[in-house]
Amino acid sequence: MEYEAGEITTIRASKDTNAYFLHIILAGQSIGKSNNQERILNTGDSILVMPGTRFESHNTKDCRKLIVKIPTDFLHQTARKFGYMSTKDPIQFEHKANVFPMTGPLFNLLNDMLQQDKSTLYDRALIYYCRLFNSAILTMFNSNFNQSPLTSLSLHRHVERVRNYVLDHITADITIDELADVCKISRKSLYNLFEREAGLTPSAYVRRLKLESAYAELKNNERVRNVTQVALKYGFTNLGRFSAQYREQIGELPSQTLRDFAH
Q1: The sheet that has 2-4: what strands, in order across it?
Q2: Where among 119, 140, 161 does a domain terminate?
Q3: Containing domain of residue 170, as a range?
Q4: 81 membership: H or E segment, kind and range
Q5: Same structural domain for residues 227 and 165?
Q6: Count of C-beta atoms within a 10 Å radius of residue 243
């Protein structure tokens, strides 16, 4: 949606819990207020409004802005597709203004999307455009999501299928038989596949994804009280073994992660 003030105006956005809103200032100035914080946005600035946030903007007469609605589920799907660690909680972006490039690939992509006739554009093409744009947003704005080191191990469709299944059931006790059934192959074929494509057993692959998820939660979740809470959540009942495996993969003890990123 493109908005042009024409006079000094105030816009109050509703608390939409199912979408992010990207505000791009094309001309003039806008003062954005949310969560008791105020940001002055000048021409070329942009800001992402989190789901469930009441955002208020005061706009100058010459203000022109583009507001892009980004469905929460689709942004999370894109994050998963491009290898970011995914949780069920919304991605938390830093609440600060970023300069939006008015030239270059991202601007051209957004312009192409706006120029397309949605009635004649194939669904697959539209999804492709939107996924590229969302990927650029994930790169442009700092967030609490981390790209998984396991992402680059293999692009094999079965490995990706297992990865998505594990992340969808990350706190469950996942068996090898489940994973073989997901891929519609035998246990032996599954072991051979992961040995060839990832250099890991399926169990080790699942464990590494769980450890990465535990790291992301210890680093970013303000509700975490202690390491034991997180270890048990992801199925690690032996706390000593969890700490050793965590340190081997992450490079530090889980207690260190929790201490370093305590809010």
Answers
A1: 2-4, 64-71, 19-27, 45-49, 98-99
A2: 140
A3: 149-260
A4: helix 72-81
A5: yes
A6: 16
Q: Please check whether residues 177 and 48 belong to one and the same domain.
A: no
Considering the domain architecture, whether residues 19 and 122 belong to the same structural domain is answered as yes
pLDDT digits (tens, 9 = 90+) for 97-150: 888 888 877 888 888 877 777 666 667 777 888 888 888 888 888 877 666 555
218-263 tens-digit pLDDT: 887 667 888 999 999 999 999 999 999 999 888 899 998 888 776 5
Query: In the chain, what is the greatest distance between 2 CA atoms, to the nearest angstrom?
Result: 69
Question: Where is the domain boundary, 123, 140, 157?
Answer: 140
226: domain CATH number is: 1.10.10.60
Q: In this predicted model, what pLDDT tens digit does every residue of 140-181 receive, in sequence order?
A: 888 776 665 555 455 688 988 898 899 889 999 999 999 999
Same domain, 24 and 130: yes
- Edge-to-edge strand list for the sheet holding 29-34: 9-12, 56-59, 29-34, 37-42
- What does the alpha-carbon distance between residue 77 and residue 140 come to, in Å, rounded to a whole number? 17
Same domain, 178 and 135: no
The C-alpha atoms of residue 111 and residue 133 are separated, in whole angstroms, by 11
Residues in CB range of 118: below 8 A, 6 or more apart: 126
- Number of neighbours of residue 249 by Cβ within 10 angstroms: 14
- Cβ distance 28 to 62 under 8 Å? yes
The pTM score is 0.61
pLDDT for residue 8 is more than 70: no
In DSSP terms, which residues pair with 86 in a beta bridge?
A: none
Tokens (6 digits) for 10: 């105030």
Q: How many domains does the structure of the chain reveal?
A: 2
